[in-house]
Design goal:
This protein is mainly α. The chain has one domain. Helix content is 96%, strand content 0%. The longest helix is centred in the first third of the chain and has 76 residues. The chain is rod-shaped.
Amino acid sequence: MNRMKRWSMSVTSWVDGVLAQVENHEAAVSAAIGRVRQSTARARVQLKRVERDQQTLRESLAQEERAVEVWRRRAMAAEDEAVALECMRRLKSSERRLQQLRQRLAEHERSHKELSQGIQMLNARLGELNERKNLM
């Protein structure tokens, strides 16, 4: 009888240990899911911010392109040499700003692409974690 009690207690403690491990794993997976969801939410907010900045840059770029054309036409139409030279200076300045805006827009587009890929990876990871949790 004594052996039976010991064996029963041994099996019971082993089962309790296994259940505790499963519960610990489930808690760890749940915590990981929460962290991934938070990261995904932050990345989406950042993506929206980048998209707004891109739109602003595109508008500034279009405005600067119009300014370049205006200064070019004014320089060509100017009858006074001093006025034409000033128009050319402003044209060059507008062209420099235009080039800077194009570079910034290209950087934003790269950031947008990287963030989009990051969000896709986070969503895939979230799916994997949910599958693991469901399998437990």
